[in-house]
Amino acid sequence: AARVAAVLAGGADTVQLRIKTPPSPDAAWQAGLRAEIADAVGAARAAGKPLYINDHWREAIAAGAHGVHLGQEDLVALDDDDRRTLAAARTRGLALGLSSHSLWELARAAGEAPDYIACGPVWPTTTKAMPWHPQGLHNLAWWATIAPAPVVAIGGILEPDQLAQAAAHGAAGGCVVRGLGAEPAASLPAWRAAWQQGTEARAHGAKQVPDLPHPTL
Length: 217
Known about the structure:
The longest helix is centred in the first third of the chain and has 21 residues, at about 25-45. The radius of gyration is 17 Å and the shape is globular. α8 runs parallel beside α9 (about 185-205). The mean pLDDT is about 95. By secondary structure, it is α/β, with parallel strands linked by helices. The protein has 9 helices and 7 strands; from the N terminus they run αβαβαβααβαβαβαβα. β4 (about 95-100), α6 and β5 form a beta-alpha-beta unit. It has a 7-stranded parallel sheet. The protein has helices spanning about 1-10, 25-45, 55-65, 70-75, 80-90, 105-110, 135-145, 160-170, 185-205; strands at about 15, 50-55, 65-70, 95-100, 115-120, 150-155, 175.
């Protein structure tokens, strides 16, 4: 929650909070999770910015978060009651973001009519162990054209120039984690400038969309 507040103070437009679940979460950890989410939601509400909670969708709904983000494993793990609960929350305004790493995951995500679809990893990433080959700008451009929802580029975005490239290739947003550094207020202006540069390049450049995506597994 403290990191969320710092990123919001630095001027981020949208924030996602990811708190990884330990192998054996106990009651104290669960209580701490709920407190962190509540504090983060309060900070986002005070700043007037949307906050997405990664994975912990029940706690996000209870805390009144703007939205939730689910990975493909979380999506397929939902049972019928979970889906009804999540659908009811969406009718009340809960936004939904979904991950995708391959063509079939993109198709599965599209079937849920989310508010955005993440395409990743665009570049190699170390924040999460995964079997997928990097999508590259080639696949990102294809995703951004084919997907029925805004596409967010994620994975390995460590330098502002990479964010500019993602914007130029059609991404509606970009996810920066380690690249924000210890002081987001100091680093965010460069990231925002890079995003602006990329969106201007996309607006004035010729649109080149690959015929097909390349394999990612």
